[in-house]
Amino acid sequence: MPAQTMTLAKALNLSLRTALEDDPDVLVMGEDVGRLGGVFRVTDGLQKDFGEDRVMDSPLAESGIVGTAVGLALGGHRPVVEIQFDGFVFPAYDQIVTQLAKLHARSGGALRMPVVVRIPYGGGIGAVEHHSESPEALFAHVPGLKVVSPATPSDAYWMLGQAVRSDDPVIFFEPKRRYWDTGEVDPGATPPPLHRARVVRAGTDLTLAGYGPTVKLCREAAEAAAEDGRSVEVLDLRSLSPVDFDTVQASVERTHRLVVVHEAPVFFGAGAEIAARITTRCFYALEAPVLRVGGHHTPYPPARLEGHYLPDLDRVLAAVDDSLAY
Amino acid sequence: MTAPTADHASGATALTDALNAFADHRPEPQAVQLLRPDGTLTLPPEHIPGYGSELLRALYRDMRMARELDTEATALQRQGELGLWPPLLGQEAAQIGSAHALRPDDHVFPSYREHGVAWCRGVDPVDVVRLFRGVTNGGWDPRGSGFHLYTLVVGAHVLHATGYAMSLAKRGSDAVAVAYFGDGASSEGDVAEAFTFAAVHDAPVLFLCQNNQWAISEPVTRQTSSPLYRRAQGFGFPGVRVDGNDALAVHAVTRHALDHIRGGGGPFFVEAFTYRMGAHTTSDDPTRYRPPAELEQWRARDPLARLRAHLSATGLAEPAFFEETEERATELAHRVRHAVRTMPDPAPAGVFDHVHAEGHALVDEERRRFEEYERSFTDPERP
Ligand SMILES: Cc1ncc(C[n+]2csc(CCOP(=O)(O)OP(=O)(O)O)c2C)c(N)n1
Ligand SMILES: [Mg+2]
């Protein structure tokens, strides 16, 4: 298949299609994933082409979706389940944390849990309550899980395929406000490993690290900073469990400054862990404390206020200024 | 179970008999209906509790108001004034009929589509619309109306209703808690757990399931392979299916259920068999999954048309009544439209309001820094 330009949602769709074609044990299930093709159309056309046996509309029960995925995986299948929105993963949280994450360890390695839990996440689409949240830290905190989030159509395509082939459970966070962003996907290319971070823009004065929906924001901030004569490096972390600290460390050793940007509340968030580890690894290279830009320690606000909650260009640039002022 | 006998052949028969004793041979009953789609009654009026011009007019008027609110809110969403709207079109009888059977001190736990119940409980429609405009995650104070906040997490509130009912019972009240939820919600673990708690605590809770045949794109057959009302039996309380497009029947059945609960009978399950005539929400496109013929079939069972036909045919309402109702509906639409168009956005620092009842040092600090940051955009001293 030649390289094509497509949306991030379409790239995920293509990746699922490829996975279903390549491995008869791969199953897709979730609420409205069949005939409707999912509320974001990520599974569009899959039930038509692969049948109701492999692309299943689930009953409206998230604990059931993940709990039966565990059983299907025990039976040798590779379920890729969809949680319709970030805020609705919590009925499944018990199954994910107490079962999915632990069965491999509990069985002394005898059992494997090749389950992918896809979760559209993050805000910025003017949605009602529970449809804009960023709960990734709640999963990265759980041993036994792997947590990733693509930022581009190409990564969406490759990372989902890698997640499906992984023998470990992967919580796959999809930046829903980027579903309609387009980019090139080249199914003939060789992708980087699933858990490798990437330098998306080289710079010398400061490193901005984001993932999922904030990578684009970090790139925009770097461009704006360049107009003021500041050379900002941008990292796409891509994976939160594990985090590719080597790539972050190498960047910080070049730039001496780090700002982490995510939509989730900064309190006990992914940025806190990165700040702690990078401070340990790069203590003598750092010219400023690691700073974080993210959500407040408040419930995700109603849509008309989300602009005051989400990190934006001004807030990222203010953090860049603060870091450079040290 | 009878102990199998030593004799082989008769032992097998005895076992089969013992097993067969558990089979359910009851024929499937028809949903309770009082008003046929053509507006005629299935029973003589004197057998229908509450039957009379006052009740019937009130039911019609409130269904008409609910439909008007729904139409107006849908239009406002199309015009960009609301972020989203979940229409109740087609479910007016299920909502208005049941709400009219409640007492003011009963307490309602809705999902997110119960705009008609909200109306009957005296919640200002502007407050309901406020939520879908995205200016609040709540909208009203449930303490006034006994109408709890909408719950967007499907099924979660059914447990809250059950707990509230347990609280009512402990306080010696004979008020009832009512949980409104959908056919899709019936699959959630929370709902099954609510049934269990209600049953073992004999809680005064009414489970009112609006089976509108769809959960977004999934037909009810993706949720259950037996009629929903029957689920109650397995948990140990009564379940009844009512024609959910017949306001009179919904009213009578709800009244019966409430009497049962108030009389100490424990929980009761009512399945209002109805239809979601609109999209799931304004973001949804039902043409992707729903056969148009199905909609047409249900359009012929429209809940407003049948009550109107009955009121007209019996002379229980004059043309003037319908004219006045139309006027009131138009007034409501105008009021809601005006209120939405002039509704201010909340203050930015509102993000930090009411996070905790007793304050929180980190939230307070973040608020201070946020306000400082906001000021930096207008501060003339800013470099
Ligand atoms: C826990 C949870 N999972 C998924 C959703 C997404 N969702 C919203 S409404 C809905 C369908 C609900 O169907 P039903 O209970 O029949 O109510 P109806 O919308 O028909 O009134 C779904 C899947 C949700 N809001 N909450
Ligand atoms: Mg439904």
UniProtKB/TrEMBL annotation, chain B:
Pfam family, one: E1_dh
Superkingdom per UniProt: Bacteria
Cofactor(s) needed by this chain: thiamine diphosphate
Domain Dehydrogenase E1 component: start-end pairs: 61-342
Keyword Disulfide bond part of the UniProt annotation: no
MF terms (GO), sorted A to Z: magnesium ion binding; oxidoreductase activity
Protein name per Swiss-Prot or TrEMBL: Pyruvate dehydrogenase (Acetyl-transferring) E1 component subunit alpha
